[in-house]
Amino acid sequence: MSAVERSDEAPALQALGVSAGYGSGRRTPDVLHDIDLSVDPSRALGVVGESGSGKSTLARVLVGQLRGRSGQVLLAGTDVGPLRGQALRDIRRQIQLIPQDPYASLDPRMSIRQALQEAIEPQGRRHPGMRERVSELLRTVALDPGAADRRPHEFSGGQRQRIAIARALAVEPEVLIADEVTSSLDSSVQAEILNLLRSIQARTGVAMVFITHDLSVANYMCDEIAVMYLGRIVERGGRRLLSSPEHPYTRVLVDSIPRFGAMGEGTSRATVIIEEAADPAHPPSGCPFHPRCPQGPRFHPDRSVCVSTRPTLTVHGAEERVGEERATACHFPLLPPTTTPSRPGL
Amino acid sequence: MASNATSKPARRRIPAILVIGAMILALMALLAIVGPMVWGAGASSLGTVMGGKASSAHPLGTDALGRDVLARTLVATRPSIVMAALATAIAVGGGLVLGATIVLAGRRVRAVGERLIDLLVAYPPIIVALAITAIFRPSETSVVIAIGLAFTPQFARLTNTLAASISERDYVTVGHLLGLRPLRLLRRHILPNLAGPLLVLTSVGFASAIITLSGLSFIGLGVQQPQFDWGTLLSLGLQDINVNPVEVVGPGLAILLTGLAAGLVGDGLNHYLDPRQPVGRVRRRPYESSDAGPAAANSTGAAALSRLGAPVVDDVVVAVQDLRISSLSGSVGVPLVRGVSLEIKRGEVVGLVGESGSGKTLTAMAIARLLPPGLMWSACSLQVAGSDVSDPGTRPPKKLATDMGIVFQDPSSCFNPARHIGPQITEVARVHGGLGSRAASEAAIERLREVQISSPELRMHQYPHELSGGMRQRAMIAMALMSSPELIVADEPTTALDVTVQAEVLRLLRRLNDTHGTALLLISHDIKVISALCDRVCVMYAGRIVELLSVEDLHHGRVYHPYTKALLAAVPKTAGENRNEPLIPLPGRPPQPGTPITGCSFVSRCPMAEERCSILDPHLRDIDGHGVAACHVTTGPLEDSIVRG
Amino acid sequence: MSTLPAPRVTFRGRLALRRTARTPWRSYLIGRLVGVVLLTVLLVVVTFLIVHLVPGDPARNVVGINGSAEQVAQVRQELGLTQPLDLQFIHYVGHLLQGDLGTSLVTSQPVSVMIGQRLPVTAELSSLALMIVVIVGFPIGIVIGALMRRGRAKWAGSVFTVGASLGGAMPEYITGTILIFVVSLSLHLLPVQGGTSLSEITLPAEAVAFAPTAIFARLVRNETASVLNQEYITTALSKRLPSWRLYATHVLPNVVTSTLTLGGLLLVALLGGTVITENVFNIPGLGTEIVQAILQSDYPSVQGIILVLGALAIVITLAVDIVLGLVDPRTLNGRG
Question: Which residues of chain C fall below pLDDT 50?
């Protein structure tokens, strides 16, 4: 995908300083801290992280299933927070979710046609042309319109994902959130779904947020990638993020992708991780990654700033091409030799 | 493009118990309607024979006032059934309203409501019913209300749990997003999915109601004289039991029959609505099949000859020849693995790669002699670590436990949750290795250290759920290593792990292979994992091995089978490689196990298919002296254009 | 009862669950104790209100239609109904804390004395029934569950299921009636009516225990089958252990933990069955007393018995929760 000029309109989706957590009553700790992100129409943002990174929580906050404790979520410039009732219901149709589990995302008692009709017209009103619209949607996702009257259990996992995509498209949203949509599918089926999503984006200009643990998938699908760790974004940038990561965690992620010849003993120690990630509810002080960071105080005892001060997202490098701006939250980012001094960024 | 996929039959067989139960209940309902009209006179007419035994005139005898017991029992059907039905309606209705609507309310209300229900459930219903009966003097009405209210909390709890689990389903979440109003969500999504289990609950509730109601009438707190229901009839009969025991038969049978019928309906509905796993998707179950019979008979003459035992080569850790596995569906066998042969040499790392349904897990489990029941299998020869284990009818020797270690996919369920992991790790060493518990513990701690688990002494006394997923997996590997096995079978060992943890585990496996010379059979659907770890690769498709190749050839794309080529093309590349290449999906799907296959199983998806491919089933053959693939058409390493073409 | 679909706990969910269990025991105990307090308060309030919820005049119910106005007034005085409601409640609770449960309107005996006499009988009967349920039901369930594991012995499985369904549907009063008829009258083996000695409560205990044993055995069978399906049994199988060891160390502990909760609830249900069965066999326990008390509108006695039975249920539930928490540490986190 070529670099796209920044449009003058508001981004399709924006999160500003969003924090969130689960549980009510006694205050339970936040699992998302201070998230800033934005996606423009026709662009795809990949959110990458492991378990405990908060990426699923982020998905739920973005679609409104979970209320953030602070910050704002804006859809096409409108703050969703204060809205209630019908106004809220109307605006929520602008952002649609394709959930992870294809076996739970469709009501087993409804036929595909009924599910799609409900998406097109949630109040249940019928209007002429509905039948044709359903067929058209099914064709868009490469399914046979004749199968519309079947029930979900008659379809395979990959087909159900397509139906979920068709249902999301029926609403004609501005933003699509794809939450680990290919994790439970075989690789060949995964390829179909990914290509389908790309073609849909090309055709409709919908903005996409692609949540995944798989870096290679994010690399394939997205223009911009945000790497999450323990509820924070630790690095954000364009596709060069994966070939030259700045944050040590991103480096470890990239090096962890299994590939031929990577298992030898000569592997650089910089990519080795010790221990498991901390509890997202009780993150370490300072930089959340410091207990495990190959660049951190564990290996470089003089780098105590990692323990005392939490780094913020900062633009370190000289990359400033449009659409390629890179920001990293690290005191000792992995930079190529010649760089200009850092300045605070997004 | 769509076609019927995993086809569940549209209509399931209705269980016999459901039919029987429903018929009995229908009979009861009929009697309830017509009873008093038909037999009312007979029930109240005072006869001449007091306390009479069973006779042709009075099949169930007469009571102390000479009234016909059978007639009275039949007439009592109406009050008994009606009261029970009303009480059930109160309990289920009240429970439904309470339990389901709490789920839709705000978070605070929901928390309080669920807490309240939990509290109310703690009191036994009988005691609640007694309290209510005490308040409203014993009568028909009071006992109905009493039972109804007494059972409401239980139903509220059950519907609450059900409704909560349904409301957490993804399709309800999406429903919110589509802009559906809460009422519509309830009506169209939550209630219909509740209907099934709710029906089961209602049947069971009715059974409880009729029994408890009759019980209360029996002890005198229900229907009062001169009214009568089954409970009071039973009580009257009990008073005469020394004199005329047959009097209790009528009402007793009536109560029993009705309660039983309702219970049967509930059970039957439960079976009908919640079927077992469909055939074809074999879930792993613990015991291996020892059904020898038909499978053995299938072996051909040639196979029988070679069964005389391939020479045990010291160098080879696993030797399988012509492994076949099928599941039983009725009397027909559904073939799942169709003739797999492979060999693993000492210290080798061999990978089995394939998509779901390829048979790779079954193959590995067969080699490990851990196939679930319900599967028939046979092999011309199967030798593991020098032991011949090819006979399904014979239990494998105990030394298999020390010669071979297993690592499973799901680290959260492979350890016994009720015991510390220490004893589980040392179990084989103590039972088969003759080690005392102290020596075994020390060995275990060493192993845990070797797999880089921190504070191993502490871990020995921890429960599995206290360890994280990655640690559990490493503990599993430590357990597998305890006896210094010649072979480790790892079935998707890293699929459930985060990518950084996965890298660690894979590195660990590699290191162990280098240090101890343990052979490794690795099963994975992820071709990246396979190319990272293995020396040799077997590609499986539809129950067969379709290609055997070295990992170098795989990495450089020097592959001979179109399926392997397509697999490589479908996987997104990482940074640094050709990342802008579009992914080429593989059209179609693997054939369903059980669908008869003529010719090559890949033919419908193969870009190179020729006519002979639909007729003749290709076997693994040597191609140009280097490649080994099951394909008629291929003559050398395939070009990339084959799949992009 | 049908098994309910449990919400799917994903791998990541379980990870989060483990991490929040910092001080599981403390919060678990506190939670349970809070529950007990609430339950007790509710019980006391409800028991207190029994008299006041009676439609019409409770005193009139006691005296009867033919009683004089003076008698009614006297009863009102005795029940303390002349005072304002909140005062009555305070008096009630005050008396409770001193162990005074009031005086029976029929026998003029203190209710606490009556309970002191009759509670041990009921408790003994329930306990004996519980022992029968566990000692008979548990082994049968495990054996059948193990026998049916390979899908063989299907006939045994069907017989068992049918038998257990039939047995589980037998109400205790019908079982009691049959037992009386068969054992006592025909065979003259055990005494029928009254009495509190062991021989005298054997028959009633069997009546109480019959259906619950069938239900329990079925439950144990299902749990055994479910445990045998778990992946850790496959792991254990790969160790080629002798069968007895497999069952003793891997199957049994897990079956026990999962049947424990329902076993505990069964005990509470046994209380109810005991109450009814006492009336069949004329056992001088709380069951026979409360029936008489209700029929005669002896409100203090009714209140006292309800209170004691309710308290028993609460204590038993708490004990089960604590034992369960000790035996299976995973329960400390989830709900129920």
Answer: 1-22, 335-336
**Claim to verify: residue A152 and residue A290 sit in the same structural domain:** no
Indicate the number of domains in chain A: 3
Q: Could you tell me if A88 and A176 lie in one domain?
A: yes
- pLDDT score, position C4: 34
What are the DSSP calls for B363-375, one per residue?
A: HHHHHTT-PPTTE
Residue A340, in any domain of the structure: no
CB contact under 8 A, C271 and B124: yes
B284 in contact with chain C, both atoms CB, cutoff 8 A: yes
B566-571: average pLDDT: 87
User: Smallest Cβ distance to A118: which of B178, B567, B582?
Assistant: B178
B419 in contact with A, Cβ within 8 Å: no
pLDDT digits (tens, 9 = 90+) for A31-80: 899 999 999 999 999 999 988 888 989 999 998 888 888 899 998 888 88
CB of B452 less than 8 A from some CB of C: no
- Contact, A139 vs A152, CB < 8 A? no
Same domain, A272 and A289: yes
Closest Cα in chain A to B179: A89
Query: Is A99 domain-assigned?
Result: no
- Looking at the complex, does the CB of residue C328 fall below 8 Å from at least one CB of chain B? yes
Asked if B354 and B561 count as a contact pair (C-beta separation under 8 A), the reply is: no
Q: Domain for residue A228, yes or no?
A: no
Same-domain pairing of A275 and A315:
yes
Please check whether residues A122 and A183 belong to one and the same domain.
Answer: no
Inside any domain, residue A104 = no
Contact A179, A100 (CB under 8 A): yes
The answer on A68 and A197 residing in a single domain is yes
Looking at residue A204, which CATH number applies to its domain? Answer: 3.40.50.300
Domain membership of residue A267 as a residue range: 244-335
Structural domains of chain C ordered from first start: 111-333 (1.10.3720.10)
* Euclidean distance between CA atoms A16 and B303, whole angstroms: 70
Instruction: Write out residues 2-41 of C within 8 Å (CB-CB) of A.
Output: 8, 11-12, 15-16, 19-20
Q: Tell me, yes or no, if B616 comes closer than 8 A to chain C by beta carbon.
A: no
Name residues 97-126 of chain B within 8 A of A (Cβ).
107-108, 111
Same domain, A176 and A89: yes
- The distance of B415 to chain C (nearest Cα, Å) reads 5
* Residue A194, both tokens: 């990914």
Closest chain A residue by Cα to residue C11: A51
Asked if the Cβ–Cβ distance from A187 to B571 is below 8 Å, we say: yes
| Angle separating helix axes B191-218 and B77-104, nearest 10 degrees | 140
CA–CA min distance A50, chain C (Å) = 10
pLDDT band at B184 (very low <50, low <70, confident <90, very high): confident
Question: pLDDT digits over C222-243, tens only?
Answer: 889 888 888 899 899 889 888 8
A49 close contact with C: CB closer than 8 A = no
| pLDDT higher than threshold 90 for residue B328 | no
Chain centre distance of CA C246: 33
Report the C-alpha gap between A78 and A131 in whole angstroms.
33
- List, in sequence order, every residue forming a beta bridge with A343; answer none if it has no partner: A315
Domain final residue pick, A167, A189, A211? A167
B339 vs A198: CA distance, rounded Å: 40
Which of A91, A105, A144, A186 best tests the B interface by mutation, with the highest count of B CBs <10 A? A186
Backbone angles phi, psi at B450, to 5 degrees: -65, -35
- Shortest CA distance to B230 belongs to which of B54, B82, B344, B41? B82
A159, A175: one domain: no
pTM metric for this prediction: 0.81
Residue A46 near residue A221, CB atoms below 8 Å? yes
Detail the DSSP E strand segments found in chain A: 13-21, 30-39, 44-48, 70-75, 78-79, 95-98, 175-179, 207-212, 224-229, 232-237, 314-315, 327-328, 343-344
